[in-house]
Each structure stands twice: as C-alpha cells, then as structure tokens.
Amino acid sequence: MKKILGFVLMLALFFGLAACGGDEVIPTPVETDDTASFVGVAPITITVGDPFDPLTGITATDTVTGDITAGITVTGAYNINTAGTYTITYKVTGSDGNEVTATRVVTVLTAEGCPINQEKVNGICVPIPAETIVIMHGAPYEVDPFHADFSGTEQLERQQLQTEVEERLNVDIEYRAYPANAPWGPDRVTAIIQSSVAGDHLADIYWSVSDWIQSLAKGDAIVPIDQYLATTGQNIHDSFLEIGSFQEQTYGFGADKLTVDVGLYYNADLVTSLGVDNPTDLFLDGLWTWTRFDQWATQVQTALTAQADDMFALGGMFSSYAESMIPLNGGALINATTQRVAFAQNPALETYAFLNALYTKGLFEPTPQYDAGSPLWQAGKVAMHPGNLWFVNADNRWGGLAFELGFVPYPRADSFVGDYISPVSGVAVYHVASGMTPEREALVFQVWNELQIWQTEAEMADSFELSLMTKFDQEEYVEAYLAIYDKVYLDLINAVGIGAYGENGWRRNCNLGIREGTSRTVMDQIKPIYDAALEAYLNG
Fold first, then answer.
1. What's 251's DSSP letter?
2. Alpha-carbon gap, residue 536 to 247, rounded angstroms
3. Which residues in the chain land under pLDDT 70?
4. What is the pLDDT of residues 491-528, one digit of tens each?
5. For 224-270, what is the HEC assignment?
6. Which residues in the chain are classed under CATH 3.40.190.10?
7. Looking at domain 129-254+432-455, what is its CATH homologous superfamily?
8. Pairwise CA distance, residues 335 & 194, whole Å
C-alpha cells in the first residue's frame, strides 16, 4: 500500500506541474521499504559447549523473489567454549539490490549456567573477583588511556578497548610508575631482579629497553614468550622479535615496527643563507657520499669562518657519527648475525680515519655534547648535528630551537653497495615477569596483546608518515626519511653489559681515538674485553 500511494503521489505531482505550464520537473523519488527481511534474529543464550549453528531458525525472504535464506552471510566472532557475550551480524541482498543487515547477541553461559565472570555459590551465580594486572612503565601517562595527562594517541578507542578487555577477561588493569629506587639503568634492573628474588615482583608486565634483556633474563626476572607467538602473540612484528631475543628465546616485545631513529639534522635557515647545496637534495639525488659530505662540510666551514670564529660546520660527538657510518661502509660494531666484535675491523677503522680527517680540518666544534647539543648548536652557530627523531619536538632537546631543522640520513662510503642500513639498540620493549603460574602468565600476556591497537604493514607506514609530517616543515625531509625509515638492523654494542661511557666502553674510546688519531690502538685494547662479554652474552 505504501508503494502504491507513493507512486500515485508522484504521478499527481508530475501531471499537476505539467498542467500549470511550468518547466519540466523530474519528480523526487519517494523512499520505499527494502524488499528483503529477516525472520528469527533474536538474542540467544546457550551454555559453554552447547552446539550452536548461527543459521538455525534464521530465514530471509524477499517480497519479489521469495525465500532467499541461502544468500545469508554471517560475520562476527564468537566462541561457544568460552563464556561471554558476543555479537554476530547477518547480511542478505534483496532483489532491489539493497543489502539488509541484522545483529544478534549470543550469550554463552559457564558450565555452571552463570554469565561470564560469575560462579555458582550455594546455587546462586555470584561475581568472581577480578585479577589485577600491573603494567609498570617509566611514564604511565604515555600508555594509560585513563590517565589525566595521557599523551598517547587514539585515547577514546584505547579506553573502550581496555574496558572491553577488562570485562571479557575479568581483570583490572593498573599502570604503575617505577619506584624511586628504580629510576633508570642499572638501578632499575637491580630493583626488578631483587623483587623477583624476594618473590614479590614489582609488576606483571615491565617496560624497559632491549639492552637490559640479558641482565633481566639471567636474573630470572622475566620469562620468554615464544610459546605464545603462534596464538596470542601472532601480531608482534618480526623486527621486535629480533630485538627482543636473547640466546634464541624471545623476552622483549612491542606493538609497532622498528624504524630508524637517528640521522643528521641541520640548521636549514643557516644553510640556506650560506648558499651551499642542500644536504637533503644531495641525498635524494643519490649524491650523499663521504666525498660529497666532506666537500659540503668544508664549503660550509669556509663560509662560516668568514662570519665568526665560533661557528662550525659539524657538531656533536664523533661516536654518534661513527655508529651509523660504519654500517654504511660495510661494517658493524658487534654484528648480531655473525656474532663477532667488528668495531676493530677495516670498515670501522676506515670510518674513524675519515672522521679524524674532518676533525683535523677544523670542521667539528671544539666542545661537543650529546643529545641536546652544545650551547653553540642551540644558538644556531653549528650547521649540522646528529640526533634522534624524538628530539625534534621534545622540550628538553630541540623543541625550542629558533631555527628550522632539516633532516638528511648519514652519508654512505663512496664504495658502499647495497641498501641503506641503520643500527638499532636500546629499544623500548615490554617483558612478562617470572614467577607466575602458567595460567596467570598466559593471561597476562594475552591482556597485554589485546590492549594494543594492531596495524598492518601499510597502516604502520601511513602512521609513520603522518608522524613525520608533524615534525618537519618541508616535504623533502619527510621524503628523505621515508626512503630509509625501516632499514634497521640489530647491533649488540649496548647489549653485552659494558657501559658505553665507562673506561672500557666503545663510545668513550671511539671519541678519544678519533680526536687523537689513535683509533686502531684504543680499539685493539678494548676488543678482548668485548669479545669476552659477547661470549658470555651469547652462551651464558
């Protein structure tokens, strides 16, 4: 009847307008009902293990073609062996081409006939107390979506996800900061291990860095998660499985994909004013080699010296350059693949010699500093400085710089062939604490996995590109970063238990050797120490 009235109304409207002598008007279609509809889609309650066919009792009919039940499709996950509340969706397409959907709630009761997270006591279903899962982090506001100062992304989605996980798995998730006696580094590692020895773990999940895995594993403070990688841990990216491994077991894990975090940053305003080549353009044109890098820095220094005595082409510590340039000369520091100390081999020695030559020419500032850089860099008197991507917006690094930051990857050796590669170490990872029952351990790892917003490779690439666009002012910097962003490899230089800045540390001796031209001597002196540490790391 509704369709007939609609049709009559259109005819009347059309002929009425025509009779009035107006312009020809195409009538506006009147909405009609879908031809397809469902019967039998109603909430259902079953008990764990009961047989359940989502199509039983469900039919679909079409006002034109009749029974179209065979065309029904069902989507949505449910598990008849696990108590819970699930939602499934039915879809069918009618003769009018419209797809009709209907949702159905499926409630699966426990074997005792109780709703999820309840048990029978004296014949009555009562709630089961939720288990508290503690995640310990250096800055809980970065990961706790309910924190008043949450600084992460997708807060609402993460809140909804956590609420759903807590209800479905009957847990309370609690984020805690590390205690005062565990601020960072050895103190944090010691505190975690001591709590394990005492049988009173600080948390169920620890956030730390990959360099500490050896100490935490040997201290029996954390457990490998390999047994879960085919099930609840199947989304973890291979790059994290590599960085989180120790003695052929996986102890560290994360929810993203490892990306290059280091590069060379330059004062774009200063470089433009000098009229020299743009480093990013040189890289994108395939010309960013050691020879061109030397030429560029020399031209910059010549122009700066004409302006003032306290302006320099290059800033930062020698070791920051060497760490990323040695792989681009075919070498490594401690190669995780060959399992050999390589920082005293020819590719490394050639890199030290190259950097020493640049220093001897007066291209480096005389009093460099790590991280945020020296006062000269901060004041805009140094053209180029090594750094990490997160420095760009950080208030305690470069977020307050008064000049535009340009980005360019490290230069390749003239004879280097192959893909760009960048070492990674000290990566933020999570661990599962030791000392739990098998059931609780599995639950803890499942909880962590289900709290994550997992992305495909393409989605991760898109997200990374968007993050770069918030850090750089020019599209060419983003283009240069994307060209190398996932070209990472694991280097063990910081993982074998030798302090990088201690008397025998590679970083300290690298800086010393390049400055004094004694790299071969100092590297030969510390290599046996690293050989022994690597042996202990690999074989225990």
1. -
2. 10
3. 1-32, 540
4. 999 989 898 889 999 999 999 999 999 999 999 999 99
5. CCHHHCCCCCCCCCHHHHHHCEECCEECCECCCCCCCCEEEEEEHHH
6. 129-254+432-455, 262-425+461-497
7. Periplasmic binding protein-like II (3.40.190.10)
8. 31
Which residues neighbour 193 within 8 Å (Cβ) at sequence distance 6 or greater? 215, 216, 219, 220, 221
* Structure-block tokens of residue 461: 């690439």
Condensed to tens digits (0 to 9), the pLDDT of residues 45-103 reads 999 989 999 999 999 999 999 999 999 999 988 888 888 888 999 999 999 999 999 99
Q: Is the Cα dihedral 267, 404, 326, 315 positive or negative?
A: positive
Among the listed residues 42, 116, 51, 54, the one whose alpha carbon sits nearest the alpha carbon of residue 80: 51
Residues of the chain with CATH 2.60.40.10: 34-109
Amino acid (one-letter) located at 50 = D
- Report the candidate in 453, 512, 467, 476 with the shortest Cα–Cα distance to residue 161: 453
Distances (CA, A) of 95 to 28, 64, 89, 160: 22, 7, 20, 38
- Encoded amino acid at 311, one letter: M
Class of domain 262-425+461-497: alpha beta
Tokens of 53: 């066919």
The first and second tokens of residue 11, run together, are 């005819």
- CA gyration radius for the chain? 32
Residue in 130, 147, 135 with CA at minimum distance from that of residue 174: 135
pTM of the complete model: 0.74
Both tokens of residue 411?
């230069």
Structural contact between residues 136 and 444, judged by C-beta atoms closer than 8 angstroms:
no
Tokens encoding 445 = 């790892």
Q: Are the CB atoms for 514 and 317 separated by under 8 Å?
A: no
